[in-house]
Amino acid sequence: DVQLVESGGGLVQPGGSLRLSCAVSGFTFSSYWMTWVRQAPGKGLEWVAKINQDGSQRHYVDSVKGRFTISRDNAKNSLYLQMNSLGVEESAVYYCARDRNFRFCSSQAGCYYYYAMDVWGQGTTVTVSS
Amino acid sequence: DIQMTQSPSSLSASVGDRVTITCRTSQSINIYLNWYQQEAGKAPKLLIFAASGLQSGVPSRFSGRGSGTDFTLTISGLQPEDFATYYCQQSFTIPYTFGQGTNLEIK
Q1: How far is B35 from chain A (nearest CA, A)?
Q2: Distance CA A51, CA A32 (A)
Q3: Of the candidates A44, A116, A120, which has its C-beta nearest B34's C-beta?
């Protein structure tokens, strides 16, 4: 079965750091872009970061640039998110997800590739509080 | 960043009803639009990719349409397990952005 399992969440003080992990099984991890998405309590989804197959390309939402680092270890089938200088507003459930490239043909656009997050972990909770 | 506006924010319907959720983007995104379902306390689940592509295993009562800036998700014949929150998301450009969500409740 395809499975993503996050860990590493917990309680951290404002300004503190935390490293999240996402253990992957059931598919060839090294073949896919991977993504982190977060959801504050009672709020909607926010995309945080994504990384390509070999780790050479990384993208972040502006609010975390310079503080968060996404990385991966293909030998360990694992994805990571190092979070530094955390603020209380970053308390959330953090999900890892596979960012799959779907080939799709439409009458409007012809045949192209489109990204969508097709497999998600169960999430790990980060609480930033003093 | 591309802004995503979903409507309505909440919706009450009955089992068997047909409902439509709308997503509007602040700029044209071709068909780089995905829909997710999130049940309470669970991770999101991909329903539709590329505006109208049905994800494997998703029932055919779910359908998506649209291109450019206006998109819809339609559920034909609501089932009890469909009462959840639905999000649209654009993958046209980084940063990916989501709509604020539509909470579908039982009437």
Answers
A1: 9
A2: 9
A3: A116
Interface residue A57 vs chain B (CB under 8 A)? no
Say if A63 is an interface residue toward chain B (CB within 8 Å): no
Selecting from B34, B43, B91 the residue whose C-beta is nearest the C-beta of A120 gives: B43
User: Are the C-beta atoms of B31 and B24 separated by less than 8 Å?
Assistant: no
Strands (E), chain A: 3-7, 10-12, 18-25, 33-39, 45-51, 58-60, 68-73, 78-83, 92-106, 110-120, 124-128
**What percentage of chain B reaches a pLDDT higher than 70?**
100
C-beta separation of A121 from A97 below 8 A: yes
Q: What is residue B97's three-state secondary structure?
A: strand
Cβ contact A109–B43 (<8 Å): no
Q: What is the pLDDT of residue A1?
A: 94
Which 3 state secondary structure label does DSSP give A113? strand
* A46 contacts B101? CB cut-off 8 A: no
Task: Report residue A79: phi and psi, to 5°.
Answer: -115, 145
Please state, in angstroms and as integers, the Cα–Cα distance from residue B43 to each residue in A23, A47, B39, following that order.
Answer: 16, 14, 7
**What's the sign of the alpha-carbon dihedral B38, B44, B48, B54?**
negative
In tens, the pLDDT along B41-51 reads 999 999 999 99
What pLDDT, on the 0 to 100 scale, is given for residue B79?
96
Tens of pLDDT, residues A98-112: 999 999 998 877 899
> How far apart (Å, rounded) are the C-alpha atoms in residues B62 and B19?
10
Q: B36, B45 in Cβ contact below 8 A?
A: yes
Q: Residue A44 is nearest to which of B32, B43, B101, comparing CB atoms?
A: B101
